[in-house]
Predict the 3D structure of the following.
Amino acid sequence: MTISTFIIKNALRNKRRAFLSVSSVAASLFLLVTLQVALRELTQPPESSGAELRVAVRNKISLTNPLPARQRGIIEKIPGVEGVTPFTWFGGKYKGEEGMSFAQFAVDPKALGTVFSDAKMDAAGYKNFNEQKDSCVLGKITAEKYGLKVGDRFVLDSTVYPGSLTFRVAGIYSGTPDDRNMLFRQDYLDDSLGVPGQVGMWWLKVKSADDMPRVTAAVNQAFENTSAEVRAESERAFQLGFLAMLGNIKALVASISTVVVFTLVLVTASTMSMAVRERFRELAILKALGFRRRELFAFILAESFGLSVVGAAIGIGVAYCAYTFGDIGKMTHGIFVTFEVTPRIIGFSALVAALLGIVSAIAPSLAVARMSVVNGLKTLD
Amino acid sequence: MAAENIVTIRNLTKLYRQGEIDVTALNNVSLDIAAAEFLALMGPSGSGKSTLLHIIAGVDRPTSGECRVQDVDVTRLNESQLADWRNQNVGFIFQTFNLIPVLTAAENVELPLLLTQLNRSQRRKQVATALELVGLSDRAHHLPRQLSGGQEQRVAIARALVTDPKLIVADEPTGNLDSHSAQEVLGVLQSLRQDAGKTIIMVTHDPKAAAFGTRQIHLEKGELS
């Protein structure tokens, strides 16, 4: 027998309790990893390759306020601007679905390849999109979800505009961080509504990263004191501002994570306290046999640490496998496209588990350290 | 020629505080115990016999007085020194056996050796010898629950012996045993004194058990009578 054999046998002496302890740690760590990944996905959305050169231009009052289409000509003339496209929210529901399962935006097909160059699509797709007014391009995820192919037609009932529009699939794109959107032609929307002249917002592409500050400033300045003042900002700033509208998600997730960890500490500490309390007499015997406080502390710590680490390995492992190899789109009903368990999140969760093991061992260890052999021997007399 | 003393106790007093009252467990006790003696310590409940045994074994401290075991004043050792000293010099036998239920007989006996510098094969050899001495070689891989009470106590004796201490302290070692098993256990203790020269101090209520000792002393209200 070795010291480690002794520790393992002690940890597994009550197999049901060990199983429940490990399971509670595993479930909590799974939840903690999930919360951390969700927080990361929400606050640090994946950036596309063209993001550093893209500028979002929206109405200064609110994202929901439209902008006049005439602004385009002014924006295009600003030095450093490579391309501009309108980007108008349609809010369509597919085949009578209750909610919107993918976003649809009206764009300029000629500017698509320039502004959203990260969206990869075959030449035929671009050609169709340019030539057919009622055409649209679909993200690969949405196309696969609804089984739509090039040439198929479908109807969207708008929740923003009156009536419905029929679209023909011109192409299917992929390569963006979120291949779910549908893009269709702004002129088709204008014609259908019969009220051309308004767009939701603008996306533009600058020629180089050095142009970005100057272009955004120039765009903002160009529409100052007009009926439609704008706010131009980088794609990253736009995303963060958009997320800020959702409220302080970071604080919410952090507080839930704290509650999870705190509950876990209570559960594990309680388990270790029970495990040690029922062995108080045995620990007194060990003391009588010559084991010192530090050795008994090491036994308790190793047991507590072991239970936490095994639980954490299972919880983190299951989370990693589920989110790496599972279909996250299906699991989250399309809320998340990616759900990456990063090494940083794994490290943080493992650190939490390790600290949990240590903290849980402190109270029972102190009780054992304070226990005299004589009093310990009396506990079951 | 008189045998050399292994335990020398002088003016030993132990007071316990119970609320506002001091209770005297031992009152100015002086005692010599010779090497290879089998001392039976008798007395009614609360007479202080277990307290005296605990102080001699280094698991309790006196309020005043001196307790020398093999020329070491155990009252002056700190916690860590006492732990080492106990591991090397004292073997414990308890009334309720106190074996670790998840360990086999051999593993229970091996426990005190985990604190020594012996390697695994040396430990195994000593464990085998100790189990042979108590006649339980064939039960080495049995768990405590698979043993009878008498066998469990013999495993506890093997655990007390395995580090080869000169002094073995036994607190009511036959208190939980039937008369047959008690005879067996007492016989083992007696042969340890006779054949291996161990000094044995045994607390007991039972006059039949005390009769196995080479000397009997009585404690009454914390004093030798």
The longest strand of chain B covers residues 5-18. The longest helix of chain B spans residues 179-196. The radius of gyration of chain B is 17 Å. The CA atoms of residues 100 and 108 of chain B lie 6 Å apart.
